[in-house]
């Protein structure tokens, strides 16, 4: 079986293969080979090329966990909130969003997504441009970029909106599909700061 060797960061990734030529596959093959353990658990399909996701820094992990905990605590059986599913965009793209919210009985798909969230510590440019463009192409209805460096959220309704609403700690942020689920942004950014302070690599920028 062909060996696929790629490397990636959460910013715009650069593929590497033994002969210097990217191997392109479709989404169905990507899922099937992933189930066989050919790829690491945290891999994405981007334009037909498989990328290993870069490790998360503590600020990214802490902020992501805080956000998911708030969404889960407030769901009241109305929706599912999960982390890093493989989300089919089209035959050549299957990203792993940091957070996905769907109706409770819906399948995991871009069409069923009520909310897609990317947490950005060092990946802001990629998340707000290339990644957002893919979500927009798939018709994602709401997309948040949680900018940990500037402690704000860019909210796009829909993902392809020309300009985002900018929300900071103290502002009211809730998914359009679930307006009663108000996120405590101050707690999200406090969690990121705690992760940065506690990280053994705190002198380096976080990834993700």
Describe the protein.
- The protein is of the alpha+beta class.
- The chain has a domain at 58-198: tt1808, chain A (Alpha-Beta Complex), CATH 3.90.1570.10.
- It has helices at residues 27-35, 58-73, 124-137, 185-198, and strands spanning 43-46, 49-52, 79-82, 99-103, 115-120, 143-147, 152-156, 165-168.
- The strands form 2 sheets. Strands 3-4-5-6-7-8 form a 6-stranded mixed beta sheet, with helices on both faces. The chain has a two-stranded antiparallel ribbon with strand order 1-2.
- Strand 1 and strand 2 (49-52) form a beta hairpin.
- It is globular, with a radius of gyration of 17 Å.
- The relative contact order is 0.17.
- The model is unreliable at 1-16 and 202-207 (pLDDT under 50).
Keywords, separated by commas or semicolons:
208 residues, tt1808, chain A, six-stranded mixed sheet, 4 helices, 8 strands, 25% helix, disordered N terminus
Brief overview:
The chain is of the alpha+beta class and 208 residues long. The chain has helices spanning 27-35, 58-73, 124-137, 185-198; strands at residues 43-46, 49-52, 79-82, 99-103, 115-120, 143-147, 152-156, 165-168. Helices cover 25% and strands 18% of the residues.
Extended strand count: 8
Radius of gyration in whole Å, from Cα?
17 Å
- Quick one: biggest sheet? 6 strands, mixed
CATH superfamily of the domain at 58-198: tt1808, chain A
Q: Which percent band covers the strand fraction?
A: 15-25%
Low-confidence blocks of residues: 1-16, 202-207
Q: In terms of structural class, how would the helical and strand content be classed?
A: alpha+beta
Quick one: CATH class of the domain at 58-198? Alpha Beta
Please tell me what the overall shape is: globular
The proportion of residues forming helix, as a percent range, comes to: 25-40%
Tally the helices: 4
CATH fold node name of the domain at 58-198: tt1808, chain A
Cα-to-Cα separation, first versus last residue: 31 Å
H/E element sequence = HEEHEEEHEEEH
- Strand order, sheet with most strands: 3-4-5-6-7-8
CATH architecture of the domain at 58-198: Alpha-Beta Complex
């Amino acid at each position: 079986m062909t060996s696929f060797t790629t490397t990636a960061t959460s910013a715009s990734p650069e593929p590497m293969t033994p002969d210097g030529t990217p191997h392109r596959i479709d989404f169905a093959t990507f899922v099937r080979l992933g189930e066989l353990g050919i790829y690491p658990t945290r891999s994405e399909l981007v334009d037909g090329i498989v990328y290993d996701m870069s490790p998360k820094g503590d600020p990214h992990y802490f902020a992501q966990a805080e956000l998911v905990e708030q969404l889960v605590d407030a769901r009241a059986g109305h929706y599912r909130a999960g982390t890093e599913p493989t989300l089919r965009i089209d035959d050549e793209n299957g990203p792993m969003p940091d957070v996905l919210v769907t109706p409770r009985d819906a399948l995991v798909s871009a069409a069923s997504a009520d909310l897609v969230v990317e947490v950005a510590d060092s990946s802001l440019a990629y998340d707000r441009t290339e990644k957002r463009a893919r979500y927009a192409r798939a018709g994602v209805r709401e997309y948040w970029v949680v900018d940990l460096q500037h402690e704000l959220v860019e909210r796009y309704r829909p993902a392809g909106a020309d300009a985002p609403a900018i929300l900071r700690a103290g502002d009211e942020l809730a998914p359009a599909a679930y307006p009663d689920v108000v996120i405590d942004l101050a707690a999200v950014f406090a969690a990121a700061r705690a992760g940065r302070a506690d990280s053994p690599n705190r002198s380096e920028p976080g990834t993700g």
